[in-house]
Amino acid sequence: MIRFYFHPTPNPAKVALMLEEGGLVYQVVSVDTSRGEQHAAAFRAVNPNGKVPAIVDTDGPGGKEARVFDSTAILLYLGEKTGRLMGSPADKPELLSWLLFIATGIGPFSGQAVHFQHAAPEKLVYAINRYRREVERHYEVLDTHLKGRKFIVGEDFTIADISAWGWLERAPRVLPGEGGPLAAFPNIDRWYRAIDARPAAARARAVGKDHAFKKEVDDETRRALFPSNYPKVAG
């Protein structure tokens, strides 16, 4: 059994898709990050960094319980555990390269673009332009790579496609504007539509729908999501 610590945001979405594509048995454990549940001691024992997603595999290597945190680490772990969605042995260098391209580029720049456009108390033109342009640059790299390709790596659907889908699914929020965020990236658009049409994608998107996650953005939410913006209280 895999316990899947989840909040409906892009990185957990990747893991949801991986679990569904792999046909794995899992239990969803909600972590309402807007209420600060990611800072609780019980969750920090699973992920010391206090972020979702994370998993606990009760049947880990050697039959021992294993915790894994960070979406890219989880995708690699589950791919190796199941022997699926990892491409061929010859694909591994490309697979690792594109996984890290997504993990260190598309993901964090998209997150910062969302933050400065939608969450920051001041609309800083420099910051908004900086992160939007970097998202667009990363999209352009991926779009060029996908020309004439069905998948990101090799001839088959892999965890690289799953990883990218998690953030591309939120492209309208990352790059809001008229015409749609992928209009300038036709190869990504074609690729995304194909991945999103997979039956497992619909099931992944339904994960957590039965839980009433907090949606309002108030002081509790801001302190929970951006604790470094607030001074620590001496105690």
UniProtKB/TrEMBL annotation:
Q: Which CDD domains does the protein's record reference? A: GST_N_Ure2p_like
Q: Where are the transmembrane segments?
A: none
Record domain GST N-terminal: where: 1-86
**Family matches, as Pfam families:** GST_C_2, GST_N_2
Tell me the ranges covered by the GST C-terminal domain, including all copies: 88-217
Q: What is this protein called?
A: GST-like protein
Q: Which organism is it from?
A: Bradyrhizobium erythrophlei
Upper lineage is: Bacteria, Pseudomonadati, Pseudomonadota, Alphaproteobacteria, Hyphomicrobiales
